[in-house]
Structure formats: structure tokens, C-alpha cells
Amino acid sequence: MTAVRPAFRPDIEGLRAVAVAVVVAEHLVGLPAGGFAGVDVFFVISGFVITTGLLGELDATGTVSLTAFYARRARRILPAAGLVVATVVVVASLLWLAPRAWATGLDALASLLFVEKWHLVALGTDYLAADGAVSPLQHYWSLAVEEQFYLLWPVLVLAVGLVVRLARRGPAASRRLLAAAFSGVLLLSVAWCAWRTGAAPAAAYFDSVGRTWELAAGGLAALAAPSAHALPVAVRRAVTLVGQGLVVASALLLGPALAGDVVAFPWPWAVLPVAGAVLVVGAGTGSLGPVEAVLVSRPARWIGRRSYSLYLWHFPVVVFAASLGLVGPGWLALQLGAVLVLSAASYRFVERGVQRSGWLRAAARHPTAPPGATARGRAARRPAAQVALAALVGVVLVGTSAAQLRGPSWLVDPAAARSGLAAVAGVAPSDASASSAPDGPTWDEASLRSALDAAVAGADEVPSGLLGEAFSSASAPQIGPGGCRFDVGTEARSLRPCVAGPASSEHVAVVVGDSIALSWMPAVVDALGPGWRVLGLGIGSCSVIEARYGSGGGDDGFPEACARSRQDLDDFVDRTAPELVVTSSSAAGIERLTSGATGVAAEAEWRRGTAAAVERLSGGAAGAAAGAEAGDGTRAGARAGARVVLLGAPPRGASPAACATRPTRAALCSTSLEPRAAATARAEAAGVADAVAAGADAVRVDVTPWFTTSGGLVPVTAGPLLVRSDTQHLTARMSRSLAGLVGPHLRDGPAPG
Fold this sequence. Notes:
By secondary structure, the protein is mainly alpha-helical. The chain is 57% helix and 6% strand.
């Protein structure tokens, strides 16, 4: 078979233009809704181009030089990528307040190490970061996928070359073995992708293992290209036309389909753009006449040549503009202009400038150059050196990826990163005491409503220091590291409650539920005061409401795991034998019921679940006195009936870390009440009433007036306090300030037991 040599393909340059155009358009204007499929097209192109080059080198030399390959990739990728990262970090520090600026710094570190995809997966599994602001470097996840492919793919080709040389076989054997190896990688990746998409689709989208099949498909297309090019021109034109149609259809159709939850992505429906791109690059040549006219046109090739810079620059521009509220046709045109100017300059002075660098070109000299060209080139082809380099690459790749997923918290948590750096520098963060400061207003409903109204009226004058407290560490400590919020499915023996108050206290109360419930614990502790021992235990995203609902992240096992964790919470309450049980839950569950119920039916299901939960937690009117204290701070034995107080969830609003900037302060942070909040409130109030009618001592407290203005808006500050640290969790100071409003509801009603 004729050796495949790297050659310029104008149609591939045009296909790059199509891919980047749909990605940029979707991010700028939201159309085409399936523009994300452009990334899948890029993956195929990368697999095809890289494999074609490696095949040419293997044919010419019988091996592959990893050092030369990596040097060429670094020369192509790193300068522009590094420039954009550095620019983003500088702009973020000037434009955004500390929480988001620090988060961007961590994104920058992950992007420079090409592990941004794992960073995003880690953030998705980090409960307190799940509602974080969009990163201006989020799009670097696809570069991370490609770069890790670039690190491992030539190792595979090198291994095949070594096996063929040892077996003293020819190029035909090499191609057959490569086809088998590439096919094996593709099939394994598809299997992983299919499982991952069903189990955790949010993580599957960024998962490099589950995306490798797309690049491997491009590699197989490179192997098949010589045979494809031997087909009649009419057949190749038809195949190319079908491929183009699939690419266009993907951009136009996948978005609406996914919005309706009809299809899953990336598996199986990434097959559409991948198959389309494979047909175009495999059958096309750039000289097939009218069917490739658009791809080889001068505008398409102009965009295609700058596609890398366009991809790098467009997303930071979009994210920075959105954070300032710059919307409308005029601002949109300005954003597009900025993207084009930055991309053209980056291509001209960075991409091309580095490629023309003499010493970098020498370092990355292609191994097909004459054998005596450089001593470095000869050394690079020594098998022992190649194997050692491959091993080093593997160690670095596994280590940096594992660090993001299982490493120290400061790699993903801005609060931990800031605290760690401050500790190293021997200084304390300026707002380090914000979450523990006892000072703050004591609200009544009138003064609190007045403060909320003033917060909206003076939103553009809110002190930057107050908005800059919006780190996760500002939340109630019970939901943070070292607290008593655990992941769903955590084994019962690992659940340890938070405890406030001495063991000798006359009265015992528990706070149970999800993290929303735990965010009320500072208020409950202060409201009950001396004489009460308060224990708290929570399961992230899993409330005590007796309803089956999903996590929102596509984890099929969540409802069952939540049911088991809910039973563990029940057991904890039984062991503790409290006089008072306080609970609360996020309003999100009512929209994620596994039954598929919506509207009135969903409210009815949530009402039944609330009634069952309240009756269960109340423990009935009869029971023996609590026994001796257990090792975890609870009390063993049967329990008497308890008063149950269900506090409504604080209305969900804007995250101050995402909505506040230095120029706008909190002007873009006030939001309207979500419809689901009212639906949840109605269902819970009716459910508690049902439980009371059945004999439970219970009350539901409507807290919505404590967080909304006279006009029904939800601000992020109230007087000198930051209300939330993210979209839904109360800050510790705000929670404590509400003790005076919570207290009467904890004490009213018939005496327990």
C-alpha cells in the first residue's frame, strides 16, 4: 500500500472553518443549538491529521520519534494557548471579585497542564462548586482531550512499529496491526462512553476516555484514505456530500433533540458529526469539484487557518461580556469584532511567528529528514530512549489527571487555594473571619424587608469587600469540609454528626436533611440558646421528603442511594431521641421526580412525601425515654414523639461569585422567584397539614418573606450581610442573623411527648 504522507488538504481547512463557526455562533447567539457538535468534528480532524503524519513517518523510517512529535505539538499548541490563559487571568483579576478570580486561576492551572476536562469533572462532583460561574477557560476541556490523545497515540504507533520491526515484517503488516489496534481503542472507548453517558452524562461530556473513539475514528479514516481515494470520483463525491450533510444536520438537529431529552450525548448521537467528518476527510481531497466548493472557498480557508485562535479567544470574550450584562445586537457585533481581531492578531504574531522560529523548528525537525541532519534526531529514534519517554509521559498524564480527581482540595476549591496560599505567606485572608464573626443585625420581619429593599435600590453601591466574601467557606461550616454533610450513599458507619452544646444539656434537637437543612443550623443553635444540645447530619441533594427524584446530573443510581441514606438519617434521629427535629430541603426535587410527574401531579406527589416524612420524624406520640449517650454523640434507645419544624428553602437566586463584578457590583444580581419555589411551598404546607391531622406535632415555616423584597425580587445582600455564598446556600452570618425569626417557630405548639 502506498505510504500516506502529510499533505495540505484545503477541504480539511474548510471543514475546520465549519466546525469553529458553529461553535462560536452557538456561544455568541445560541444558534445553531447543536453547535457543540463542531468539537466532535475537530476531534475527527485531529485524529486524521495526526495519524496521517505518523503513518508517513512510520513508512519512511520504520519508527516514530516521540521527542520530535511532542516538540512539533508544543510549538503548534502551547504559545497561543498560553497567551490566552495569561490574558484571561489578568482580565479576570481586574474585572471580577476575589471568588471568581481565584476560581479562574485554578482553571488556568488546569488548562496549562491540559487537565481542564478533569477539573470540570471534579467541579461537577464538588457539591459546593456545582453551581459555580462559567469559567472563561471552560472550552480548554477539548484541548485537554486532544493533548492527552497526542501524548498517547504516537506511543501506540511506535509500539506497533517496534513489533513489526522485531517480527521483520513489512508495511502491509504494520497497517493491519495498526488497524486492529485503532479498532480496539475505538471499541473500548465506545463501551466506556456508552456506560458513562448513562451513568453520569455531565461527566461523560468531558471524559477523555469516552471521547477517544472520536479521535480514533479519524485515525482509522487516515488508514483507509488510500483505499478510499482509489474509488471512482463519482462515488467519492457522493460520500463527501453525505458527510457534509451529516455535519450540518448535527449542528441543526442535535440541540433541539437534547433540549427535549430525546437523545443522549456524547453517546450515541455524537456518531452523527463523527461519521460525517470521517466521510469528508476520508473520501475528500480538496479537488472534487462542486461538492467541495464551499470547503475550499477563500473565506472558508481564511477562517479555517485561524480556527485554533478563533476557538481559543471566542469563549473568554463571550463570558467576560456576559458577566457585565453586555447584551443586544450592538454588543453582539462588538464581541464578534473583538473575537476576529484577537484571533487574527494571535494567528499572525503568535501561531505563525512561533512556527517561523529557527531554533524551535530545529528542535521539532521531522524525523524523515536526512539521517545525519541532527544528532538529536538520531538519538530520538533509539528504542530505549523512546520507551523511557513514553513511560514518563504516562506517569505525568496519570499523575496530573489523578491530582484533579483525587488530589488536594485547593486544586478545585478557590477558598482552599486562597487559604493555603495565605498560610504559606503567613497572612490571613481579608475576610477570613466572615463566616465566624458573631456580629450582625438581629432582624424582625420589617427591618429585614427594609434591608432587602435597600439592597436592590443600592445594588451598584454594595461594597466590593462584602461581595468578595462569596467563597464556599462563607457558608455554614456544617456543609463544608470537616462538617456533617456527606455524599449520598455514604456508609452509615462513616456518618458523623455536628454537635453544638454540652452533653449535659437538658434538651436535644436535631437538624437533618440535605445541605439546605444544614445551612439553617447556625440559626437553630442560636435560636435555642443555652440548655439545648443540637446535632446535625445531612446528605447532599438528598432530603428527608419521602419522594424519589434524580440528582439532576443523570446518575441513574441516585434515587436508590438517596433512599438508603434517608433511612440512615431516620436511624440517626431514632438513636438521638430528640424533642425537636428541624428539617428543610431544596425545591429542586419536585422538578426531577422519577415518576415523571409535573404540575399538579408533582405537587401531589411531593405533598404525600412531605406528610410521610413529617409523620416518620415525629416518632409518634408514645415512646420510651432516651437511653444512654452513644459514641457519636447520639443517644441510644427508643424515642418519644418529637416536634417537627420544616423550614422552607431560601429562594434560589444568583450566585454572588458569578453575578457581581468590580464595575457593576451587585447591579446584575437580583432575580425573580422561581416558579418551582411556590409549587414546593404549596406541597409542603399541605403535607405538613396532613401530618398534623394525623396527630403529628409539626409546623411548616414560610421563609420566603425573609429573602424577598416588596417587589418580589431576591437580592444577594441584606444590610451588611451576604445572603448566600452561591445560588442557594446561606452564609453562616446570614443564618445566625435569622435566629430571632426562627426561634418562635421552634418553641410554639404543644409540648413534645
